[in-house]
Amino acid sequence: MTAETSQTLDRGLRVLKLLADTDHGLTVTELSHKLGVNRTVVYRLLATLEQHALVRRDLGGRARVGLGVLRLGRQVHPLVREAALPALRALAEDVGATAHLTLVDGTEALAVAVVEPTWTDYHVAYRAGFRHPLDRGAAGRAILKARQGRIQDAGLALTHGELEAGASGAAAPLLGVSGIEGSVGVVMLADAVSERIGPRVVDAAREVAEALR
């Protein structure tokens, strides 16, 4: 810590990060041990975070991330979209297909940014806000591959006809971006994705990930 930083704020943020990394919550004792501070400090941190709905405690006393985090998270999408647009535009123009950035939203994949090519006679109409299950479509499958550590070929996923008849998709996950699960991909009206497109999608996902770090 330096003179310009707040120790209390730092600890509060560390509490949120610790809770975000667990599915079953943490007790005051567990948080005290992980933070290296006494239980009284943890109680005060949790009480403050609870007032802002950033933390909740269940009947067993375990602390979990609160719903207030969702309100903050909604403001993240515009920032992520803005950072991704240059790479998406270049990808759409290079391959002549609709490019998209997709993020995890609960149990679904949510398209938060979409760019259509300007020079093609036709392309797939794919809109920001479109949702689909994570286990269907290239965008969701790429995210699941990264979640499972299956990142051979940079986690590239290829699909055909899973979300729209006659449409094929290719997507690669965002790797090395803390706190964000997502993918960059393209969707096109074709029986299959050509070999040259896969590596270009991987490159675009890498560019977006670098912009978000």
UniProtKB/TrEMBL annotation:
A Pfam family of this chain: HTH_IclR
Entry GO MF terms: DNA binding; DNA-binding transcription factor activity
UniProt keyword annotations, A-Z: DNA-binding, Transcription, Transcription regulation
Biological processes per GO annotation: negative regulation of DNA-templated transcription
Keyword field contains tRNA processing: no
Domain HTH iclR-type: 6-67
InterPro entries: ArsR-like_HTH, GAF-like_dom_sf, HTH_MetabolicPath_Reg, Tscrpt_reg_IclR_C, Tscrpt_reg_IclR_N, WH-like_DNA-bd_sf, WH_DNA-bd_sf
Residues of the IclR-ED domain: 68-213
Signal peptide extent: none
Highest taxon listed in the record's lineage: Bacteria
Protein name: Helix-turn-helix domain-containing protein
Species of provenance: Streptomyces benahoarensis
